[in-house]
Design goal:
This protein is an alpha+beta fold. The chain has four domains: 43 residues, no CATH class; 103 residues, PAS domain (Beta-Lactamase, 2-Layer Sandwich), CATH 3.30.450; 83 residues; 148 residues, Histidine kinase-like ATPase, C-terminal domain (Heat Shock Protein 90, 2-Layer Sandwich). The chain is built from eleven helices and 13 strands. The radius of gyration is 32 Å and the shape is elongated. It starts with a strand and ends in a 16-residue tail after the last strand.
């Protein structure tokens, strides 16, 4: 509701002004108009539904207001720049006209559903230069009677570019891990084997060595055996050959057994004996999720046990990892976590069309992953590697 007030030179308020003040105090007035020499000035109240005109003018994100017919009644300069148009050419137009034809059904669906609260959708908007821009459009009810709809438009160009970069980095990281693991196993492993054979020859010629030297040979041989085991473990942790040779189930079983032995944390693993081979990127993602989760259990949770459940059904791989540790103080959204591992895990799952949910409570942390499995390659198509 708006009221028009003329500037009054009288020292005493008029009846009309007193009624206006009473209406403001009662919350019945959202804004009022004052006629000045330069024209009308609108003053919004702090308790009003729309108290932020100055704020949205300065926002970097595009912002607009629509009436019940979907017509733009206000847009800020950022939205004009985003669409490559002047604000005056946008106001009065249907916002739907700026949505690419293929996405208009999605916008109309969003327009109908948001009335239950608020909502958003990824839409392509049409620019004045005939190009399209990927954006996230959010709708919010700005008035009590639903007559004004707030629109926030976020340019997703940079975000999607960053997502593609992250995906590329994750792929390169997996390849680098595979290469380093192979080099450690093949090159360093062979050198250590040669050193071990030389020490064995020295031990056989023990008659030419004094007892002190023979003891040094035995100690060196034991150290070489220990380093060989460490190199083999590091190599397999970087990229387990079982993941390429036997698939996700075998690799997870091997990793869990080794994790329990190294950390003394009991892991209750529940999964089918074997659900066959999955696409390589799905198997890699599933393994990395479990690896990251167990690493976080060991480093951060303080839990002495955790559980892993894996299921494959109706074309979806579902993984749940739960501990009884300290939990985390924040909301559980990967984007809000300071851990690069969690953000990388979230991006890896998102790139594969899956979902990642992390619930932090005082009683522990639960990670749930849901991945679509489009196809299962045959054994002939599965990558091969040697296991030593």
């Amino acid at each position: 509701m708006s009221s028009r007030v003329q500037s009054q030179p009288f020292p005493r308020l008029s009846n009309e002004a007193e009624q206006l003040i009473d209406a403001i105090r009662a919350g019945a007035v959202d804004a009022f108009v004052v006629e000045e020499h330069e024209g009308n000035a609108v003053y919004a109240l702090q308790s009003a539904d729309l108290p932020y005109c100055t704020l949205v003018q300065e926002m970097q994100q595009g912002s607009a207001m629509l009436n019940t017919r979907g017509e733009v009644i206000y847009c800020n300069p950022s939205l004009g720049a985003l669409l490559g148009r002047g604000c005056e050419s946008i106001i009065g137009q249907q916002f739907l006209d700026f949505v690419e034809p293929e996405d208009r059904t999605n916008f109309e669906r969003l327009l109908h559903s948001f009335r239950l609260g608020s909502g958003d959708a990824e839409l392509r908007l049409h620019r004045a230069d005939e190009t399209s821009i990927d954006s996230r459009v959010s709708l919010t009810n700005l008035s009590r009677d639903g007559s004004v709809i707030g629109v926030l438009v976020v340019d997703l160009t940079v975000e999607k570019s960053n997502a593609q970069l992250t995906s590329r980095l994750l792929h390169l990281q997996d390849e680098e891990r595979r290469n380093i693991a192979r080099e450690l196993h093949d090159s360093v492993g062979q050198l250590l084997a040669a050193v071990s054979m030389n020490l064995d020859r020295l031990r056989k010629d023990g008659s030419n060595l004094n007892p002190e030297s023979l003891k040094l040979v035995d100690n060196s041989s034991a150290l070489v055996d220990q380093v060989t085991k460490e190199i083999r473990t590091i190599s397999h942790l970087l990229h387990p050959p079982l993941l390429d040779v036997a698939g996700l189930c075998s690799a997870v079983r091997w990793y869990v057994d080794g994790f329990t032995e190294r950390s003394q944390i009991h892991v209750d693993l529940e999964m089918p004996d074997d659900f066959g081979r999955l696409p390589q990127d799905i198997e890699t993602a599933g393994f990395r999720v479990i690896q990251e989760c167990l690493t976080n259990v060991y480093r951060h949770s303080g839990s002495c046990s955790c559980s892993i459940q894996m299921n494959l059904g109706q074309g979806r791989l579902q993984i749940e990892v739960k501990d009884q540790g300290r939990g985390m103080p924040h909301s559980g959204k990967p984007s809000q976590s300071s851990g690069l591992g969690l953000r990388g895990m979230h991006e890896r799952i998102r790139q594969l069309g899956g979902t990642l949910q992390i619930d932090f409570t005082s009683g522990g942390t639960t990670v749930k992953v849901d991945l679509p499995v489009s196809q299962s390659p045959s054994a002939a198509e599965a990558p091969t590697a040697s296991v030593a």
